Inverse folding.
């Protein structure tokens, strides 16, 4: 190769070397981004569940009434008279109930705590009681929010519920058995689903109801999945356990 030809090819080589270097840097950046995104997914889908699980263990351990019902506990009849009135906690964070869902066989009961603050209530794996809504067994709408994915995902299987399924709520003194009556998917701003009479914010309640709310679709907060139910009856914890607790077992 002559010197003239070498001078002509040298710029091309330098341009090629620069292009290869740029491609290499971009490739390394893409790999780094991929690793970071992968770690984020692991954190979201696994580690948040681990963290929430640890907090739930601590919450349950602090309750002196949260022991699982004994296998030989008597099954008692539900009462349909007025249940004992429960006072709504003044401060967020108090555990007011445990929610058992027989349809979710194998799922631990969901701790229901006062308030719907995300970092301190929902992200700990608890269901959050909407302040101002009815307390368990009370006339009106006992409304509870929960995560459907991540952070313990207490309402992960909410879409599996069917009309007539039992939603069993336990407080320190009583059991309350609700039955699923309907499902709906709404936009986040449609807050009338937790009104005393769902969908009728101006109406005066005459029945005791329950509402579960969770994000929809999975891994999105674009909409809300709503389950409504009505109180079937109640019974004192001292009498035993409701038959509904073993449905599907």
């Amino acid at each position: 190769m002559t010197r003239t030809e070498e001078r002509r090819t040298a710029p091309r080589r330098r341009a090629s070397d620069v292009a290869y270097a740029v491609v290499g840097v971009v490739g390394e950046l893409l790999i780094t981004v991929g690793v970071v995104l992968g770690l984020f997914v692991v954190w979201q889908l696994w580690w948040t569940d681990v963290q929430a699980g640890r907090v739930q263990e601590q919450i349950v351990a602090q309750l002196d009434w949260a022991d699982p019902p004994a296998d030989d506990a008597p099954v008692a009849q539900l009462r349909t008279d007025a249940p004992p009135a429960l006072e709504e906690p003044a401060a967020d964070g108090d555990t007011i109930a445990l929610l058992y869902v027989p349809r979710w066989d194998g799922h631990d009961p969901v701790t229901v705590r006062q308030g719907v603050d995300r970092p301190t209530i929902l992200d700990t794996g608890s269901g959050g009681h909407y302040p101002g809504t009815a307390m368990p067994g009370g006339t009106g709408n006992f409304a509870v929010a929960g995560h459907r994915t991540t952070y313990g995902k207490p309402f992960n299987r909410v879409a599996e519920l069917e009309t007539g399924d039992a939603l069993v709520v336990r407080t320190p003194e009583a059991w309350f058995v609700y039955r699923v009556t309907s499902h709906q998917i709404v936009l986040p701003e449609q807050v009338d689903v937790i009104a005393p009479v769902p969908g009728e914010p101006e109406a005066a309640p005459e029945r005791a109801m329950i509402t579960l709310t969770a994000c929809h679709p999975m891994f999105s907060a674009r909409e809300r999945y709503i389950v409504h139910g009505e109180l079937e009856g109640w019974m004192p914890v001292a009498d035993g356990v409701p038959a509904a607790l073993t449905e599907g077992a």
User: Anything to note?
Assistant: The domain at 54-245 is CATH 2.40.260.10 (Sortase; Chain: A;). The mean pLDDT is 87. The helical segments are 3-61. Strands lie at 75-76, 95-100, 110-114, 127-129, 140-145, 166-170, 174-186, 208-216, 223-236, 241-242.
